[in-house]
Specification:
CATH architecture of the largest domain: 3-Layer(aba) Sandwich
Function: Specifically methylates guanosine-37 in various tRNAs.
GO molecular function: tRNA (guanine(37)-N1)-methyltransferase activity
Strand order of the largest sheet: 2-1-6-5-7
GO biological process, one term: tRNA N1-guanine methylation
Number of domains: 2
Distance between the termini: 43 Å
CATH superfamily of the largest domain: SPOUT methyltransferase, trefoil knot domain
Radius of gyration: 22 Å
Structural class: alpha/beta
Catalytic activity: guanosine(37) in tRNA + S-adenosyl-L-methionine = N(1)-methylguanosine(37) in tRNA + S-adenosyl-L-homocysteine + H(+)
Shape: elongated
Mean pLDDT: 94
Low-confidence stretches: none
GO cellular component, one term: cytosol
CATH class of the largest domain: Alpha Beta
Bound molecules: S-adenosylmethionine
Strand content: 5-15%
Length: about 280
């Protein structure tokens, strides 16, 4: 997978070099280019913004800067081709991590029937469609994703409209709140997407059981010791009875979902045992 990020704060994207993403870079599963948008600014001050048409507060990012930058990112040309890719922040040991499981099938998500001849352009904006785990799954099979980080009041809308000639464009929000810029949203989206790329997580089953994968929130997790500060791990987890443990986990997942995100239950197909758990819980 190839990621290109256009931003006026390239240093904000430094976390993409760390931990599992850094390891994916090292394994050549992932390559990332972070590009300073000001390289496409043409005036003496390298300005990327201007006052809003029609008046109002703040500044809007200029189309004459974003247009050529996105053209180059789609084509891998100009300053985009000249930027060095991110390297991993720290070399990772070739030994498997403790949760790497031999023989666990890697899961690739469906690519759907969308024409993928154009790269995907993700434009973070609070006015976009909410980003979901289903998006992360779908995008985990993309070959090339370009991210356009807005600042100020955002990017001139014509940039997004024009980009549709070269990209499949998605305006996405990471939540109902307003950030200062798109960089943090890119970190969120990139991490959620890349961890689903086959080979990135040591133990594939860990994301197959994650919250949202089956439409529910995941229930609580425990590790050793069995007793800590007077609190015991639920007894069923020490029983060794895997059918019972699976049922308990499903019940916990249902009960937590009902308590925290009851609307999610509407979209889930419930078995008789699920209904019983909800009635009794
Ligand atoms: N004027 C815009 C509005 O009200 O919709 C907000 C612009 S915001 C201050 C600046 C930039 O931060 C946006 O262009 C976008 O890149 C990013 N941003 C802010 N909140 C976001 C969110 N919830 N999801 C994704 N990106 C966000």
């Amino acid at each position: 997978m190839r990621l290109d990020v256009l931003t006026i704060f390239p240093e904000y994207l430094e976390p993409l070099r760390h931990a599992l993403l850094g390891k994916a870079i090292e394994q050549k599963i992932l390559s990332i280019g972070v590009h300073d948008l000001r390289q496409w600014a043409t005036d003496r001050h390298k300005s990327v913004d201007d006052t809003p048409m029609g008046g109002g507060p703040g500044m809007v990012m200029k189309p004459e800067v974003w247009g050529p930058a996105l053209d180059d990112a789609a084509a891998g040309a100009g300053p985009v081709a000249e930027t060095l890719d991110l390297t991993t922040a720290s070399p990772h040991l070739s030994a498997p991590r403790h949760d790497d499981l031999a023989g666990v099938d890697t899961q690739t998500y469906e690519t759907g029937d969308e024409d993928r001849s154009k790269p995907l352009l993700l434009v973070p904006t609070p006015a976009g469609k909410p980003f979901t785990q289903a998006d992360a799954q779908a995008w985990s099979t993309e070959e090339h994703i370009v991210f356009a980080c807005g600042r100020y009041e955002g990017i001139d809308q014509r940039v997004v409209d024009d980009a549709a000639n070269r990209y499949r464009v998605r305006e996405v929000s990471i939540g109902d709140y307003v950030l200062i810029g798109g960089e943090v949203a890119v970190l969120v989206i990139a991490e959620a997407v890349v961890r689903l790329v086959p080979g990135v997580l040591g133990n594939q089953s860990s994301h197959q059981e994650d919250s949202f994968s089956d439409g529910l929130l995941e229930g609580p997790s425990y590790t050793k010791p069995r007793s800590w500060r007077g609190l015991d791990v639920p007894e069923v987890l020490t029983s060794g009875n895997h059918a019972l443990i699976d049922r308990w986990r499903r019940d916990q997942s249902l009960l937590r979902t009902r308590a925290v995100r009851p609307e999610l239950l509407d979209a889930v197909e419930l078995s008789a045992a699920d209904r019983r758990a909800l009635e009794q819980g």
